Amino acid sequence: MKIEFLFPELCNLYGDAMNVEYLRRAMPEAEFVKTPLKTKPAFSGGDIGMVYMGSMTEGGQSLAADALRPYSGRISELIEGGTVFLITGNALELFGTRIENEDGSLIETLGIFDMHAKRQMLRRYNSIYLGMFGEMEIVGFKSQFAHSYHGSGEAPPALFSTKRGAGRKPGQSEEGVRINNFLATYVLGPLLILNPPFTHYLLSLLGATAQELP
C-alpha cells in the first residue's frame, strides 16, 4: 500500500499534515511518499492506494493548481477507479473549475467536479464545525477566505451533512464532496485525530485491519 502526501512544503497549515502522520502510525506496514511541488507525482504512474492534500496559502493554491493541471485526466481516472483521496481545507477548491478573486481574476483549477470557489480576503470565516457522515458525528474547525458554489448543473454529492457551522457556503447543509472514494472537506483539525470513527472508516477503505488507533 502506497500513500502519497502531495506538496508537503505547501500543504502544511492548521496541523493538517498530522493526518498523514497519524495514518503512518496506524499503518506502519504502508509506504508513505512525500512529493515536493517540482516532482512528478507518484500517482501519475503505477499503483497508488491513497492521495492526500491539505490546507495551503492562497499563493500556494496557484502553485499547486499549475503543478496538478497536467495530471487532471489521471486524477479523474483514479477517482473513477475507486482510489482513495483525502483532501482537507482549501485544497478542496483545486478540484473544482476555478477560484474567483475579488478583483474578477480567475485561477484555473482541475475541473474534476462542477463547483467553483469565491474568495473574500477581508472576511475570513472561522467556526467550530459539527456534521454527520451517515450515522457518524464529525467535529472540527473551519478557517477560510473562500466558500464553494456549484455550477449550472447538478451539484456533486456532499461528504458531510452540517448540523452546526457552514457547509460548502453559509446557509447550506451539504459540506465537502464525495465521489466514490474521493473525500474532500473544508474541515480542519486535523480531521483524523479528532474523529476516530471516521479514521476507522478510512482505514477500512485502505484495507487496514487495525483494531486500535494510535
Describe the structure.
It is globular, with a radius of gyration of 16 Å. 21% of the residues lie in helices and 31% in strands. The relative contact order is 0.18. The chain is built from 5 helices and 14 strands. It is an alpha/beta fold and 214 residues long.
The amount of beta strand, in percent, is: 25-35%
- State the helical fraction: 10-25%
Class of secondary structure makeup: alpha/beta
CATH topology tier name: Rossmann fold
Report strand order across the widest sheet. Answer: 2-1-3-4-14-13
Task: Report the radius of gyration as a whole number of Å.
Answer: 16 Å
Average pLDDT taken over every residue = 95
Separation, N- and C-terminal Cα atoms: 19 Å
CATH architecture call:
3-Layer(aba) Sandwich
What keyword list fits this structure?
alpha/beta; globular; 14 strands; 214 residues; 5 helices; Rossmann fold; six-stranded mixed beta sheet; four-stranded mixed beta sheet
Topology (SSEs and partners):
Layout (H helix, E strand, L loop, with lengths): L1 E5 L11 H9 L4 E5 L14 E4 L4 H11 L3 H10 L2 E5 L9 E3 L5 E3 L6 E5 L5 E9 L2 E9 L1 E5 L9 E5 L9 E2 L1 E3 L2 E4 L5 H4 L1 H10 L9
Parallel strand pairs: 1-2, 1-3, 3-4, 4-14, 5-7
Antiparallel strand pairs: 5-6, 7-10, 8-9, 8-11, 11-12, 13-14
Care to give the gist of this entry?
The protein is α/β, with parallel strands linked by helices and 214 residues long.
